[in-house]
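Protocol step 4 of 6: structure prediction from sequence.
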Amino acid sequence: MTKNNRNSYSGVWGLFLAPFLIYGISLLFSPLNPTEQELNKYIKGSDSLTLKIDRLVIFHFGDGKKKINNSIPYFTNFRKNRYKDYTEIYSSTYNKYFVAENYNNNGQSLFSIREFKTISGMINLDELKDSSFGTREKPIPILWITGDSSFSESGYKYNVSEYLKFFKDRQKFDKEPCMVCAF
């Protein structure tokens, strides 16, 4: 075998191994799943509360568009892309900001919130009592709307799992490295 043949094989091997290397790096830097104990603790610390909706938070985009409901990708990899739908509200019931969140369209639409005067949802009582939550920058999550007939314990548990895995203790992107991204 000549030197030229060996060099061409190493390029082929590099092309073959590169996707596996990238996949391995993305697995290495992806957040860990919460334990069953962490899920149960969060769920047991939550209750269905009814809030008066005083104001829907309107998001302004650079092209002049305004939206109440938003959808963002929060984790992408080779196996599954994940999306979070959310709507923020201000409620005078607790004088705090709240965010209704739904992960991967798992059976609940947040679009109809704009028509409600009140909202009932699953809210963690520890986060409700915590003074660092409830601001515009860090609203209290509502991980399932309980006022409609589509309540699903498995859907709620999935939302809690995704919230704990990707959002609960994540640092701001401009202050700390991103825990979700590999860069």
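Step 5 (inspection) to follow. The beta strands are 46-52, 55-56, 59-60, 66-67, 69-76, 81-91, 96-103, 118-124, 140-145.
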